[in-house]
Amino acid sequence: MDNHPLAAEPPVFKLSPNQRAWRRFCHNRLAVGGSLVLGGIILLAILLPWFSQYHPNASSDLQFSPPSSEHSFGTDVHGRDLLVRVCHGTCISLVVGAVGAVVSLVIGVIWGAVAGYLGGRWDNLMMRIVDILYSLPSIIFVIVLITTLEQLFRNWLARALSPQYGAYTRMVFLFAGLGAVSWLTMARIVRGQVLSLRTRGFVEASRALGASHARIIFRHILPNVYGLIIVYVALTVPAIVLSESFLSYLGLGIQPPQASLGSLIADGAGQINPIRIYWWLILLPGGVLITLLLSLNFIGDGLRDALDPRAETE
Predict the structure, then answer these.
(1) pTM exceeding 0.85
(2) DSSP string, 217-266
């Protein structure tokens, strides 16, 4: 029996699709590098303000001090340490991007899945609403929505929040405004995938066994499109961070004394004059923003390549 040909064959361990996707992601140098850079930025942004002797909003007499051993990124017009403010602004920008991506995930997936699963007139009605929102200029729509919400609910929200959190009320309006437009593409992507899956045999079998519509959508259909959802969420975060930075640059985002990367760049641009340019006020926050966006985009591209179904056949 020991000479049987099957006895000499070593056991074969097959990798699961998730393991193969992870292996492809780890082989993507740009994606791995972007992950390391993003992790380093997040750690510095969170930990450095805790161990620094400077408070993000504490002013001093050292206005427009260039980068030095005492202030690595220099100081701004109020003598505040720019490095600590950049870390603080990075945290706020990432929070806005993450919350916006979650809003896009929840609304877009539910809307697209329901529209694709129901089909017919419901699908036509729901997707026409998406088309109408798509036809509106996104940035202008966000600006109008933020200003409208601010006029309606600012006083109520300021009373609802404790005084130390009153300065963050604009962040709530940013979440609402950016979330109102960020889910549209997600809804279209999910709806297209659900349309192709709702007539498959495993869906028909679940329906024949008496499974509810919600169970069919969330337990049988959506798990088959999670790859595309993850990729789009990863690519949505840098898009929302960039939109928030642009709105903050226009003065419609995070309000002083709080800061985001966009508002820090706007503050630096406001100090430009014919006599002197305080380069560190623009170059250093802008460099952090560019590095952050590049790392997020590299991670998104790496996830897209790793979760691509066509890679399974190569």
Answers:
(1) no
(2) IIIIIGGGSHHHHHHHHHHHHHHHHHHHHHHHHTTSSSPTTS--HHHHHH
